[in-house]
Specification:
InterPro entries: START-like_dom_sf
Organism: Streptomyces bobili
Helix content: 25-40%
Protein name: SRPBCC family protein
Order of helices and strands: EHHEEEEEEHHHH
Keywords: Membrane, Transmembrane, Transmembrane helix
Distance between the termini: 21 Å
Number of helices: 6
């Protein structure tokens, strides 16, 4: 089953197009990639590119792709299709294809993507993809789309948005740790004096409240969040037909 992500971004369509099609800007907001660069091409040939993802400080997985099938309709809708492949033996992703679609919508743009790929490593790879990698890719794509939205709508750079996310994640982790460790609960009960025994239910109750708040309260408005993006395609026409304009893997 392919992945689908959609975000509504209040921005100029041309600016959105530039920040998604220019490799130098794309690699700043897309969590899935560490580096994206165009490769040399002859006139009339489709644009090829190289992408790389740093999996570990000492390990980078790279691949190549080709962009083709760009179309613009009279209503302002734009679509670009691509194919990608990685020969790296440690890359679970062998090859795939996808599209980006830009649909004008009032004072903004519906920016959406649909893509799918073939995992390698046989049965083990299929299992790892279904249980871990594919959900992670969907989350990373949605999180990145929201980081792009913050950049365009509020001027929060991708680097600042990442710091905001890490800071908020740290605060939530500390809150859960303190609550689960029961730090401060005894002092709280001592303050209640003779009512401490009857209030013994308070620590586990408060712990549950703190954990629920830390895990489920919506992120701050300046923090990227995958949950703000649509993850299921609505009953609208998408652009899978564009993928057929490409001859083969990059």
């Amino acid at each position: 089953m392919g992945l689908y992500i959609e975000a509504r971004i209040r921005a100029d369509p041309d600016e959105l197009w530039t920040r998604t099609q220019d490799p130098a800007q794309h690699q700043r907001w897309d969590l899935r990639f560490t580096e994206i660069a165009h490769l040399p091409r002859a006139e009339g040939e489709p644009q090829r590119f190289r992408y790389a993802t740093r999996v570990l400080p000492f390990l980078t997985v790279a691949g190549t792709g080709v962009s083709a099938g760009e179309r613009e309709r009279p209503d302002g809708t734009r679509v670009s299709a691509l194919r990608f492949a990685s020969p790296h033996p440690l890359s679970l992703l062998a090859e795939g294809s996808g599209y980006w679609r830009y649909v004008p919508d009032g004072d903004g743009v519906r920016f959406l993507t649909g893509y799918d790929y073939r995992p390698r490593w046989g049965v083990f790879g299929a299992l790892a993809d279904r249980t871990v990698f594919r959900p992670l890719m969907g989350w990373a794509t949605a999180w990145s789309f929201d980081r792009l939205r913050l950049w365009l709508e509020r001027g929060i750079t991708p680097e600042r948005a990442l710091r905001n996310w890490l800071a908020e994640l740290a605060v939530r982790a500390v809150a859960v740790t303190v609550a689960c460790a029961g730090l401060g609960w005894e002092s709280l009960l001592r303050l209640l004096g003779p009512f401490a025994a009857s209030a013994a239910f308070l620590p586990p109750l408060l712990m549950s409240v703190v954990v629920c708040l830390a895990l489920f309260v919506s992120p701050l408005s300046r923090t990227p969040a995958a949950r703000r993006c649509l993850r299921t395609p609505p009953a609208r026409a998408c652009a899978p037909h564009l993928l057929r304009t490409l001859d083969g893997p990059r």
